[in-house]
Amino acid sequence: MKCKVCGGKAVISLRAYNIALCANDFVSFLENRVFKTIKKYRLIDDNDKLIIAVSGGKDSLSLWYILNKLGFNADGMYIDLGIEGYSALSLEKVKKMSDILKRPVYIFHLNNALGKDIEAISKKIKRTTCSACGMIKRYIMNRVCLDKNYNVIITGHNLDDETSALMGNLLYWKEEYLWKKGMVLNEEEGHLSKKIKPLFLCSEREMAAYAVLCGIDYIYDECPFSIGAKSLIYKEILNRIEDNSPGTKLQFLKGYLKFASQTKVEKNHKEMNYCINCGYPTRSDKCNFCRIMDKYGIKGNIVFEEYRNTDEVSG
Amino acid sequence: MKVEFNGKNIEVEKVTTVLKLLEKLSLNKETHLVIVNNRLVTEDYRFSQYDTVKIIKVVSGG
Fold this sequence. Notes:
The complex is a heterodimer of chains A (about 325) and B (about 60). In chain A, about 45% of the residues lie in helices and about 10% in strands. With about 325 residues, chain A is an alpha/beta fold. In chain A, α2 packs parallel to α3 (about 85-100), α5 crosses α6 and α7 (about 160-170) packs across α11 (about 250-260). Chain A is globular, with a radius of gyration of 20 Å. Chain A has a single domain, classed as Rossmann fold (3-Layer(aba) Sandwich), CATH 3.40.50.620. Chain B is mainly beta and about 60 residues long. Chain B has a single domain (about 1-55), classed as Beta-grasp domain (Ubiquitin-like (UB roll)).
C-alpha cells in the first residue's frame, strides 16, 4: 500500500477514512485530529491549568505526549492501586514519560493513603473491583485538581471506550448516563473540575500505532481485573462490525454527539454543598467517597507524592 | 514461521502476507497491529524468510 499523502510506503491502512499512510504522515494525521478536536469542541481555553490522568497505557501516555507537543502544557497524575505485578510497572512507564516531557506527575498511592490495595478495599466495601476503582478514581482525579489548583482534568478515553460505553448504556437503557457521554463534562458551579476527552474520535488501533511509531513505552498488559469485563465484550462486537463496515464506530459516536446536543437533559436542581469531612463538592452533607469510607470504617489521609524531573520546564 | 504474540513465541504454519497471518490466527485486523523487523506494516506486507514478526493486541481497558 502507498501513502495517500506522499506516495511512500504506507505503514497503516485506515479503512474508516479509506486511506493508507506512511509513518510521518500518520503521526501528523493523528496529532492534527487531536488538535482539531480540541479546537472544534473548545475543550481547552487559554488560561486553563491542565492535568492528565495517566495509567501507563498507550492512550493516556500518547495523549500526554501529543498535548505537550502541540503546546498544551499538561502535568500528570497517576493513581497507584497497589495491584501486584501491574501497578509498579505502570508507574515506571508514567515516570519515564514524565522525564521525557519534563512535566511533574502527582502520584496517589492507595496503600499509603487508605492502608489497603484496591482488591482489599473492594471486598471491604462490598463492590466489584472495577466499581470501587471507578469511585476512587473519580474522587482522586477531582481532589488533585482542588488540592493542586488545576481546573481541567484530561483523560485518554478513546473512540472504542466511548462506543462500548454507549452500547452498554443503550443495551440496558441507562437513561441517567445515556446523554452524559460527551467529550466534555463541564465544571459544576465552580465545584467539580471540567473533564475532557481529546481522543474521543481516535480509535484504539490508531493510538497503539501512534505509540509504536513514536517509540512511546507503554504497558501492554491489561489490568488483571478487567478480564471478562462487559466493556471488552462490547468492544469485540463493535470491532467485528467495524471490520465488516469500516467507519461504523465513528458514525455511531458522531451520530450520538448530534442527538445529544439536541436532547435536553434534566438538571439536578438539588443544592451543591461541601462534604463536612473533606470539603469535596457534594449534593448531601458527605460526599460519596467519605460516606462509603465512613460506613466501612476505612480511615485515611489523601496525599499526593510529587515526582518531577529536576530540569522541569515551567509553563 | 515464528511469531511473537501476547509476549509468547508461537509457531504458525507459513503464510505469505500479514492479512493471511491474521486470518490464520482468527484475529481481527481492527484490534491487532503487526510489527515486522521492528516496523509497523500494512496487511498486504509479504513476508520474507528471515522476518521477525510480532503481533500487538490493541484493545485494553475494562
